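Help needed: design a sequence for this.
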C-alpha cells in the first residue's frame, strides 16, 4: 500500500506514514492496483516538488531583497546620508519578513503577510512606482498564497 499524502510505499495496515509522519487513519492509504488512485500517486509528489521549488526560489528572492533594502541605509559617498529614510525601509523589511516567516512556517497566520505585501504592491503601483518593489511584493503575495494552498491541501 502507499501513503495518500506523500505517495511512498508503506507496510500494510500502517496507521502513520514512516516517511512523512502523517496519519493514515480515516484517510486510508491506497493500493497500487486501484487505477484511479495510482494516477494520483504519480501526480501528487511531482506537484508538491514543483510547489516546494517555487517556494524556495521565492524565499531566496525575498532574502536577497532584505539585504538590498538594508544597503539603502549605507550613506552615499558624496552626501554622507542614507539614500532613503529609515521608516520606508523598516516598513518594507516588516512586510518582507512577514512573508518569509510564513513561508518558513515560523507562524501560521496567513492574513498578515498577505495584507502587508498586497498593500505594498498597491503603494508601489499607484504612488512610488518602483518596478523592482512591485515584482518583489507580487512574488511575496504569490508565495504566501501558494504556501497557504500547500498547507491546506
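Sure. Designed sequence:
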Amino acid at each position: 500500500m502507499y501513503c495518500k499524502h506523500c505517495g511512498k510505499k508503506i507496510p500494510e495496515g500502517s496507521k502513520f506514514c514512516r516517511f512523512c509522519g502523517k496519519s493514515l487513519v480515516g484517510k486510508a492509504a491506497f493500493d497500487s492496483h486501484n487505477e484511479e488512485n495510482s494516477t494520483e500517486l504519480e501526480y501528487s509528489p511531482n506537484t508538491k516538488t514543483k510547489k516546494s521549488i517555487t517556494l524556495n526560489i521565492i524565499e531566496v528572492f525575498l532574502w536577497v531583497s532584505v539585504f538590498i533594502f538594508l544597503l539603502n541605509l549605507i550613506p552615499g559617498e558624496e552626501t554622507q546620508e542614507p539614500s532613503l529614510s529609515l521608516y520606508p525601509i523598516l516598513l518594507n523589511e516588516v512586510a518582507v519578513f512577514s512573508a518569509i516567516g510564513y513561508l518558513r512556517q515560523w507562524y501560521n497566520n496567513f492574513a498578515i503577510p498577505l495584507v502587508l505585501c498586497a498593500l505594498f504592491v498597491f503603494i508601489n503601483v499607484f504612488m512610488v512606482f518602483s518596478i523592482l518593489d512591485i515584482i518583489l511584493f507580487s512574488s511575496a503575495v504569490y508565495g504566501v498564497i501558494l504556501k497557504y494552498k500547500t498547507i491546506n491541501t
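The chain has two domains: 1-33, 48-151.
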